[in-house]
Design goal:
This is Bifunctional oligoribonuclease/PAP phosphatase NrnA. Keywords: Hydrolase. 38% of the residues lie in helices and 18% in strands. It is an alpha/beta fold. The strands form 2 sheets. A 6-stranded mixed sheet has the order 6-7-8-9-11-10. A hairpin with a 4-residue loop joins strand 8 and strand 9. Helix 2 runs parallel beside helix 3. The protein binds manganese (II) ion (MN).
């Protein structure tokens, strides 16, 4: 698969790399890590990173401005994105050829070449594997800038190596990446330092979550609460994991009210919850997924279904 991807890359002079909306470090890491690897090893090619910048990624990097005409005859690569609706910048369809590189379940196998490995900790780990193939067969070399991005993606998607998706290979890849010269401490601070108002909201979540006897929990964050804490719905993504620290917790849902919808963020320490996300038009990983509800009644149905799932798992 990696040989097919590299053969294809060699055929195109413009390559545009996309990732998913609501980006996280692995989205940026895999997208921009790949961009810098390709730029470095094919200086004659034009490599562009598409998608809208999100300020939560300011510490990490920035995408490029991509014009409509850039897509003409271009190779498009989408990383870390399970389904087409979540591709940031829907012009991804307008390129000449499409490659998907991802580690989420391959329910939507879009693209002319589909490289999906659900055993990988992150898309960034897959980009590193692509790199090792390029290194061994094409003489590719890595840069510190690319290594920093891939490392950030791995750290982000494994929760600093805590999640079960972390394998021996993940540690080995991280071990290779830290050989390059980048400021790990500054990167970690960028990833994990939080605004005090966000920490105040985290305090609110710890004070107000409800958990049943089977370890199913939820907390509702209404628009009024967001206003009170001066936090946006997007900001709350950084707090989703925090309830996992609660003893006895099996799975939890955080419901964040926006203007026309309620964002549903599901996390689990065991019971499979992406099936639940799918019931409500969403998706994601077995233990970390998301969906959208359009009323508090619908949100309450998610809470009830989560309780059922945790009861069945007990
Ligand atoms: Mn990912």
């Amino acid at each position: 698969m990696n040989s097919q991807i590299i053969d294809t890359i060699k055929q195109y002079s413009t390559i545009i790399i996309h990732r998913h909306v609501r980006p996280d470090p692995d989205a940026y890491g895999s997208q921009l890590g790949l961009k810098y690897i390709l730029e470095h090893n094919y200086p004659d090619k034009r490599i562009l990173a598409a998608g809208t910048h999100d300020y939560t990624m300011d510490f990490l990097d920035f995408p490029d401005l991509v014009e409509d005409q850039d897509f003409e005859g271009a190779l498009v690569i989408v990383t870390d994105t399970a389904n087409t609706e979540r591709v940031d910048d829907q012009r991804y369809k307008t390129g000449a050829k499409l490659i998907k590189i991802d580690h989420h379940p391959n329910d939507d196998a879009y693209g002319d070449i589909v490289s999906v490995d659900t055993t990988a900790s992150s898309a960034s780990e897959l980009i590193y594997e692509l790199f090792t193939y390029g290194r061994d067969h094409e003489g590719w070399t890595m840069t510190a800038k690319a290594a920093r991005l891939l490392y950030a993606g791995i750290i982000g998607d494994t929760g600093r190596f805590l999640f079960p998706s972390t394998t021996q290979k993940t540690f080995a890849v991280a071990g290779e990446l830290i050989k390059y010269d980048f400021d790990r401490n500054a990167l970690h601070n960028g990833m994990y330092e939080m605004d005090r108002k966000l920490l105040h909201l985290q305090g609110y979540m710890y004070q107000n979550f409800k958990m049943d006897e089977n370890g199913a929990a939820h907390v509702k964050i209404t628009k009024d609460i967001l206003k009170e804490f001066d936090v946006t719905a997007t900001d709350t993504s950084l707090l989703v994991g925090s309830l996992g620290n609660v003893k006895g917790m099996k799975a939890w849902v955080i419901l964040i009210e926006e203007d026309t919808e309620i964002r549903v963020r599901l996390r689990s320490k065991g019971p499979i919850i992406n099936t639940l996300a799918k019931e409500f038009g969403g998706g994601g990983h077995p233990l970390a997924s998301g969906a959208t509800a359009y009323s508090w009644q619908e949100a309450d149905q998610v809470i009830a279904r989560l309780a059922e799932i945790c009861a069945a798992a007990n």
